[in-house]
Amino acid sequence: MQVKDLGEFGVIALLNKIVITERGGPDNSAAFDIRLLVDTGDDTAAWHTGSTTQLFTTDTVVEGVHFTRQTTPWRDLGWKSLASNISDIAAMGGLPLYALVTLGLPPETEIADLEELYRGLLAIGNQYGVSIVGGDMVRSPVVFITVALTGVQAGQSMLRSTARPGDKLAVTGYVGGSGGGLKLMQEKVKASPEAVAYLCKVHRRPVPDVAAGQILIDAGVSTAMDISDGLADDLSKLCLASGVSARIFADQIPAHPLLKEAFPEDYLTLALNGGEDYHLLFATPQPVMERVMPQLPEGAAVIGEITAGEPGKVVVVDYAGAETVAPRHGWDHFS
Protein backbone atom coordinates (compact mmCIF):
# COMPACT_ATOMS: atom_id res chain seq x y z
CA MET A 1 0.00 0.00 0.00
CA GLN A 2 1.21 3.48 -0.86
CA VAL A 3 0.42 6.94 0.51
CA LYS A 4 -1.77 7.69 -2.51
CA ASP A 5 -3.92 4.64 -1.69
CA LEU A 6 -4.80 5.89 1.79
CA GLY A 7 -4.98 9.59 0.92
CA GLU A 8 -3.87 12.47 3.11
CA PHE A 9 -6.42 12.00 5.88
CA GLY A 10 -6.09 8.24 6.00
CA VAL A 11 -2.34 8.65 6.45
CA ILE A 12 -2.86 11.27 9.16
CA ALA A 13 -5.21 8.93 11.03
CA LEU A 14 -2.71 6.08 10.77
CA LEU A 15 0.21 8.17 12.03
CA ASN A 16 -1.87 9.69 14.83
CA LYS A 17 -2.74 6.19 16.02
CA ILE A 18 0.93 5.17 16.04
CA VAL A 19 1.98 8.34 17.86
CA ILE A 20 -0.64 8.01 20.59
CA THR A 21 -0.30 4.25 21.19
CA GLU A 22 3.49 3.87 20.95
CA ARG A 23 5.03 7.01 22.43
CA GLY A 24 6.61 6.74 25.84
CA GLY A 25 9.66 7.77 27.80
CA PRO A 26 9.96 10.18 30.71
CA ASP A 27 7.25 12.78 31.21
CA ASN A 28 9.31 15.97 31.30
CA SER A 29 6.18 18.08 31.73
CA ALA A 30 5.18 16.61 35.09
CA ALA A 31 7.81 18.46 37.12
CA PHE A 32 6.50 21.77 35.78
CA ASP A 33 2.79 21.00 36.24
CA ILE A 34 2.20 21.07 32.46
CA ARG A 35 -0.86 19.08 31.35
CA LEU A 36 -1.62 18.14 27.74
CA LEU A 37 -5.19 19.20 26.99
CA VAL A 38 -5.56 18.73 23.22
CA ASP A 39 -3.60 15.93 21.56
CA THR A 40 -2.84 15.41 17.88
CA GLY A 41 -5.86 15.63 15.56
CA ASP A 42 -7.33 19.12 16.12
CA ASP A 43 -6.47 22.56 14.68
CA THR A 44 -3.69 22.91 17.26
CA ALA A 45 -2.21 21.01 20.16
CA ALA A 46 -2.83 22.59 23.56
CA TRP A 47 -1.40 22.25 27.04
CA HIS A 48 -2.03 23.98 30.35
CA THR A 49 0.82 25.77 32.06
CA GLY A 50 0.35 28.09 35.00
CA SER A 51 -2.68 30.31 34.42
CA THR A 52 -2.82 29.92 30.63
CA THR A 53 -3.36 27.39 27.88
CA GLN A 54 -0.55 27.25 25.33
CA LEU A 55 -1.36 26.44 21.67
CA PHE A 56 0.97 25.16 18.96
CA THR A 57 0.41 24.57 15.24
CA THR A 58 2.40 24.28 12.02
CA ASP A 59 1.69 24.43 8.31
CA THR A 60 3.66 24.21 5.05
CA VAL A 61 3.10 25.70 1.60
CA VAL A 62 4.94 24.24 -1.40
CA GLU A 63 5.46 25.80 -4.82
CA GLY A 64 3.48 23.96 -7.47
CA VAL A 65 1.21 22.40 -4.85
CA HIS A 66 -0.23 25.33 -2.86
CA PHE A 67 0.85 28.26 -4.99
CA THR A 68 2.46 29.36 -8.23
CA ARG A 69 4.46 32.52 -8.80
CA GLN A 70 1.99 33.45 -11.55
CA THR A 71 -0.97 33.64 -9.13
CA THR A 72 0.72 34.62 -5.85
CA PRO A 73 3.23 37.50 -5.56
CA TRP A 74 6.00 37.03 -2.98
CA ARG A 75 4.59 39.54 -0.49
CA ASP A 76 1.17 37.89 -0.64
CA LEU A 77 2.86 34.49 -0.24
CA GLY A 78 4.39 35.67 3.03
CA TRP A 79 1.03 36.95 4.25
CA LYS A 80 -0.80 33.76 3.33
CA SER A 81 1.86 31.45 4.81
CA LEU A 82 1.30 32.94 8.24
CA ALA A 83 -2.46 33.48 7.81
CA SER A 84 -3.18 29.73 7.70
CA ASN A 85 -1.43 29.22 11.04
CA ILE A 86 -3.10 32.23 12.67
CA SER A 87 -6.43 30.79 11.54
CA ASP A 88 -5.69 27.54 13.39
CA ILE A 89 -5.05 29.51 16.58
CA ALA A 90 -8.28 31.46 16.02
CA ALA A 91 -10.22 28.21 15.66
CA MET A 92 -9.24 27.22 19.20
CA GLY A 93 -10.25 30.63 20.56
CA GLY A 94 -6.67 31.78 21.13
CA LEU A 95 -4.38 34.68 20.31
CA PRO A 96 -1.23 34.09 18.21
CA LEU A 97 2.20 34.79 19.71
CA TYR A 98 5.52 33.55 18.30
CA ALA A 99 6.45 32.10 14.89
CA LEU A 100 9.37 30.07 13.56
CA VAL A 101 9.81 30.21 9.78
CA THR A 102 11.62 27.52 7.78
CA LEU A 103 12.46 28.29 4.14
CA GLY A 104 13.25 25.79 1.40
CA LEU A 105 14.88 27.68 -1.47
CA PRO A 106 16.43 26.98 -4.85
CA PRO A 107 19.92 28.57 -4.98
CA GLU A 108 18.86 30.95 -7.76
CA THR A 109 16.10 32.54 -5.64
CA GLU A 110 16.33 36.34 -5.86
CA ILE A 111 17.15 38.15 -2.60
CA ALA A 112 14.64 40.87 -3.53
CA ASP A 113 11.93 38.21 -3.62
CA LEU A 114 12.84 37.02 -0.12
CA GLU A 115 12.66 40.59 1.12
CA GLU A 116 9.13 40.82 -0.29
CA LEU A 117 8.23 37.47 1.31
CA TYR A 118 9.29 38.71 4.72
CA ARG A 119 7.51 42.02 4.28
CA GLY A 120 4.32 40.00 3.76
CA LEU A 121 5.03 37.87 6.85
CA LEU A 122 5.68 41.00 8.90
CA ALA A 123 2.62 42.82 7.58
CA ILE A 124 0.20 40.17 8.86
CA GLY A 125 2.35 39.45 11.91
CA ASN A 126 2.26 43.09 12.97
CA GLN A 127 -1.51 43.19 12.44
CA TYR A 128 -2.15 40.16 14.65
CA GLY A 129 0.60 40.53 17.26
CA VAL A 130 2.86 37.75 15.97
CA SER A 131 6.63 37.97 16.46
CA ILE A 132 8.95 35.97 14.19
CA VAL A 133 11.60 34.61 16.58
CA GLY A 134 13.68 32.23 14.46
CA GLY A 135 13.57 29.42 11.93
CA ASP A 136 15.72 27.51 9.48
CA MET A 137 16.76 27.53 5.82
CA VAL A 138 17.53 24.62 3.49
CA ARG A 139 18.27 24.08 -0.18
CA SER A 140 15.27 22.78 -2.12
CA PRO A 141 14.35 22.19 -5.79
CA VAL A 142 11.20 24.28 -5.23
CA VAL A 143 10.25 27.00 -2.78
CA PHE A 144 8.53 25.87 0.39
CA ILE A 145 7.69 27.72 3.59
CA THR A 146 6.94 26.05 6.92
CA VAL A 147 5.60 28.17 9.75
CA ALA A 148 5.31 26.92 13.33
CA LEU A 149 3.18 29.20 15.50
CA THR A 150 2.40 29.36 19.20
CA GLY A 151 -0.68 30.89 20.72
CA VAL A 152 -2.25 31.46 24.12
CA GLN A 153 -5.65 31.61 25.77
CA ALA A 154 -6.95 31.95 29.30
CA GLY A 155 -9.61 29.23 29.31
CA GLN A 156 -10.65 26.04 27.55
CA SER A 157 -10.10 25.59 23.81
CA MET A 158 -12.84 25.13 21.24
CA LEU A 159 -12.54 21.65 19.74
CA ARG A 160 -13.73 19.64 16.73
CA SER A 161 -14.88 16.76 18.91
CA THR A 162 -17.62 18.36 21.04
CA ALA A 163 -20.55 18.81 18.61
CA ARG A 164 -23.82 17.20 19.65
CA PRO A 165 -27.08 16.40 17.78
CA GLY A 166 -29.36 19.43 17.89
CA ASP A 167 -26.51 21.97 17.80
CA LYS A 168 -26.88 24.68 15.17
CA LEU A 169 -24.11 25.15 12.61
CA ALA A 170 -22.74 28.50 11.45
CA VAL A 171 -19.79 30.14 9.71
CA THR A 172 -18.18 33.47 10.63
CA GLY A 173 -17.92 34.87 7.09
CA TYR A 174 -18.48 34.45 3.35
CA VAL A 175 -17.20 31.18 1.86
CA GLY A 176 -16.02 30.32 -1.65
CA GLY A 177 -14.26 33.61 -2.39
CA SER A 178 -10.72 32.24 -2.22
CA GLY A 179 -11.57 29.34 -4.51
CA GLY A 180 -13.29 31.79 -6.82
CA GLY A 181 -10.20 33.99 -6.93
CA LEU A 182 -7.97 31.05 -7.83
CA LYS A 183 -10.39 29.84 -10.51
CA LEU A 184 -10.62 33.35 -11.95
CA MET A 185 -6.82 33.62 -12.25
CA GLN A 186 -6.18 30.09 -13.50
CA GLU A 187 -8.96 30.05 -16.08
CA LYS A 188 -8.82 33.75 -16.97
CA VAL A 189 -12.53 34.13 -16.31
CA LYS A 190 -13.98 37.45 -17.43
CA ALA A 191 -15.51 39.38 -14.55
CA SER A 192 -16.14 42.95 -13.46
CA PRO A 193 -13.17 44.91 -12.07
CA GLU A 194 -14.87 44.90 -8.65
CA ALA A 195 -15.26 41.11 -8.68
CA VAL A 196 -11.67 40.59 -9.86
CA ALA A 197 -10.30 42.87 -7.14
CA TYR A 198 -12.37 41.26 -4.38
CA LEU A 199 -11.81 37.61 -5.36
CA CYS A 200 -8.07 38.00 -5.95
CA LYS A 201 -7.68 39.78 -2.62
CA VAL A 202 -9.50 37.13 -0.56
CA HIS A 203 -7.44 34.41 -2.24
CA ARG A 204 -4.07 36.10 -1.85
CA ARG A 205 -4.62 37.86 1.48
CA PRO A 206 -7.13 35.93 3.61
CA VAL A 207 -8.04 37.55 6.93
CA PRO A 208 -8.04 35.06 9.84
CA ASP A 209 -11.00 35.39 12.19
CA VAL A 210 -9.12 35.89 15.45
CA ALA A 211 -11.62 38.47 16.74
CA ALA A 212 -14.54 36.19 15.85
CA GLY A 213 -12.83 33.33 17.68
CA GLN A 214 -12.69 35.50 20.80
CA ILE A 215 -16.37 36.33 20.44
CA LEU A 216 -17.29 32.65 20.12
CA ILE A 217 -15.33 31.45 23.11
CA ASP A 218 -16.52 34.35 25.28
CA ALA A 219 -20.12 33.43 24.40
CA GLY A 220 -19.63 29.82 25.47
CA VAL A 221 -19.13 28.12 22.09
CA SER A 222 -17.16 24.90 22.58
CA THR A 223 -17.01 23.45 19.03
CA ALA A 224 -15.17 25.06 16.12
CA MET A 225 -12.56 24.60 13.40
CA ASP A 226 -11.24 26.78 10.60
CA ILE A 227 -12.28 26.38 6.96
CA SER A 228 -9.11 25.55 5.05
CA ASP A 229 -9.96 22.55 2.86
CA GLY A 230 -13.52 23.53 1.90
CA LEU A 231 -16.72 23.95 3.92
CA ALA A 232 -18.23 20.52 3.17
CA ASP A 233 -14.94 18.68 3.69
CA ASP A 234 -14.07 20.47 6.92
CA LEU A 235 -17.60 19.97 8.25
CA SER A 236 -17.21 16.27 7.55
CA LYS A 237 -13.98 16.26 9.59
CA LEU A 238 -15.72 18.01 12.47
CA CYS A 239 -18.53 15.47 12.33
CA LEU A 240 -16.09 12.56 12.25
CA ALA A 241 -14.28 13.91 15.30
CA SER A 242 -17.59 14.35 17.15
CA GLY A 243 -19.21 11.09 15.96
CA VAL A 244 -22.18 12.88 14.37
CA SER A 245 -23.72 13.88 11.02
CA ALA A 246 -24.82 17.28 9.71
CA ARG A 247 -27.46 18.86 7.50
CA ILE A 248 -26.79 22.18 5.78
CA PHE A 249 -29.05 24.29 3.57
CA ALA A 250 -27.86 25.68 0.23
CA ASP A 251 -29.91 28.85 0.50
CA GLN A 252 -28.29 29.69 3.87
CA ILE A 253 -24.65 29.28 2.83
CA PRO A 254 -23.14 32.78 2.61
CA ALA A 255 -21.57 33.49 -0.78
CA HIS A 256 -20.49 37.05 -1.45
CA PRO A 257 -22.51 38.90 -4.15
CA LEU A 258 -19.33 39.43 -6.21
CA LEU A 259 -18.66 35.66 -6.16
CA LYS A 260 -22.22 35.07 -7.40
CA GLU A 261 -21.76 37.73 -10.06
CA ALA A 262 -18.51 36.20 -11.38
CA PHE A 263 -19.67 32.56 -11.11
CA PRO A 264 -23.48 32.50 -11.35
CA GLU A 265 -23.51 28.77 -12.14
CA ASP A 266 -20.65 27.63 -9.90
CA TYR A 267 -20.75 29.80 -6.78
CA LEU A 268 -22.42 27.13 -4.61
CA THR A 269 -19.83 24.51 -5.60
CA LEU A 270 -17.08 27.00 -4.79
CA ALA A 271 -18.73 27.84 -1.47
CA LEU A 272 -18.93 24.16 -0.53
CA ASN A 273 -15.57 22.98 -1.84
CA GLY A 274 -13.34 25.98 -2.61
CA GLY A 275 -11.12 25.96 0.47
CA GLU A 276 -8.69 28.49 1.96
CA ASP A 277 -11.43 30.80 3.21
CA TYR A 278 -9.99 30.74 6.77
CA HIS A 279 -13.27 31.67 8.41
CA LEU A 280 -14.51 29.60 11.35
CA LEU A 281 -17.09 26.83 11.25
CA PHE A 282 -18.78 26.31 14.61
CA ALA A 283 -21.58 24.38 16.30
CA THR A 284 -23.46 25.35 19.44
CA PRO A 285 -26.92 25.02 21.02
CA GLN A 286 -29.64 27.38 19.77
CA PRO A 287 -29.63 29.74 22.81
CA VAL A 288 -25.89 30.36 22.46
CA MET A 289 -26.24 30.78 18.69
CA GLU A 290 -28.93 33.44 19.16
CA ARG A 291 -26.62 35.29 21.53
CA VAL A 292 -23.48 35.13 19.40
CA MET A 293 -24.69 35.78 15.84
CA PRO A 294 -25.46 39.51 16.28
CA GLN A 295 -21.86 40.03 17.43
CA LEU A 296 -20.25 38.52 14.32
CA PRO A 297 -19.22 40.44 11.17
CA GLU A 298 -20.88 40.68 7.77
CA GLY A 299 -21.13 37.31 6.03
CA ALA A 300 -21.63 35.27 9.18
CA ALA A 301 -24.61 32.93 8.85
CA VAL A 302 -26.35 29.95 10.40
CA ILE A 303 -26.16 27.23 7.74
CA GLY A 304 -27.63 24.08 9.29
CA GLU A 305 -27.58 21.71 12.22
CA ILE A 306 -25.81 18.73 13.73
CA THR A 307 -27.75 15.46 13.50
CA ALA A 308 -27.42 11.94 14.82
CA GLY A 309 -26.24 9.44 12.23
CA GLU A 310 -23.23 8.16 10.36
CA PRO A 311 -20.13 9.97 11.64
CA GLY A 312 -18.81 12.38 9.03
CA LYS A 313 -21.90 12.35 6.80
CA VAL A 314 -22.92 15.78 5.50
CA VAL A 315 -26.28 16.23 3.78
CA VAL A 316 -26.89 19.31 1.61
CA VAL A 317 -30.51 20.43 1.18
CA ASP A 318 -30.83 22.26 -2.15
CA TYR A 319 -33.07 25.17 -3.09
CA ALA A 320 -35.92 22.79 -3.99
CA GLY A 321 -35.66 20.85 -0.72
CA ALA A 322 -33.94 17.79 -2.21
CA GLU A 323 -31.24 16.19 -0.07
CA THR A 324 -27.90 14.88 -1.33
CA VAL A 325 -24.85 13.61 0.52
CA ALA A 326 -21.95 16.00 0.01
CA PRO A 327 -18.98 14.25 -1.59
CA ARG A 328 -15.61 15.10 -0.06
CA HIS A 329 -14.11 17.29 -2.76
CA GLY A 330 -11.90 19.30 -0.42
CA TRP A 331 -8.14 19.49 -0.69
CA ASP A 332 -6.25 16.18 -0.34
CA HIS A 333 -2.54 16.24 -1.14
CA PHE A 334 -2.51 12.66 -2.43
CA SER A 335 -5.86 12.36 -4.23
Number of helices: 10
Number of strands: 13
What characteristic shape results from the CA principal axes? globular
Helical content stands at 25-40%
CATH architecture of the largest domain: Alpha-Beta Complex
Share of β-strand residues: 15-25%
* Alpha-beta classification: alpha+beta
Q: How can the largest sheet be summarized?
A: 7 strands, mixed
Largest sheet, spatial ordering of strands: 8-10-7-11-9-12-13
Give keywords.
60s Ribosomal Protein L30, Chain: A; 335 residues; Phosphoribosyl-aminoimidazole Synthetase, Chain A, domain 2; 6-stranded mixed β-sheet; alpha+beta
Fold blueprint:
Blueprint: H1 3-22, E1 35-38, E2 45-49, E3 52-62, H2 74-91, E4 95-105, H3 111-128, E5 131-139, E6 144-153, E7 168-171, H4 177-187, H5 193-204, H6 210-219, E8 223-226, H7 231-242, E9 245-249, H8 257-262, H9 267-273, E10 280-284, H10 286-292, E11 301-307, E12 314-317, E13 323-325
Parallel strand pairs: 4-5, 9-12
Antiparallel strand pairs: 1-2, 2-3, 3-6, 4-6, 7-10, 7-11, 8-10, 9-11, 12-13
Helix pairs in contact: 2-3, 2-6, 4-5
Mind explaining what this structure looks like?
The chain is of the alpha+beta class and 335 residues long. The protein folds into two domains: 42-153, PurM-like, N-terminal domain (60s Ribosomal Protein L30, Chain: A), CATH 3.30.1330; 168-325, Phosphoribosyl-aminoimidazole Synthetase, Chain A, domain 2 (Alpha-Beta Complex), CATH 3.90.650. The protein contains ten helices and 13 strands. The chain has helices at residues 3-22, 74-91, 111-128, 177-187, 193-204, 210-219, 231-242, 257-262, 267-273, 286-292, and strands at residues 35-38, 45-49, 52-62, 95-105, 131-139, 144-153, 168-171, 223-226, 245-249, 280-284, 301-307, 314-317, 323-325. The strands form two sheets. It has a seven-stranded mixed β-sheet with strand order 8-10-7-11-9-12-13. α2 (74-91) packs parallel to α3, α2 packs parallel to α6 (210-219) and α4 (177-187) packs across α5. The longest helix is centred in the first third of the chain and has 20 residues, at 3-22. The model has no long low-confidence stretch (mean pLDDT 93).
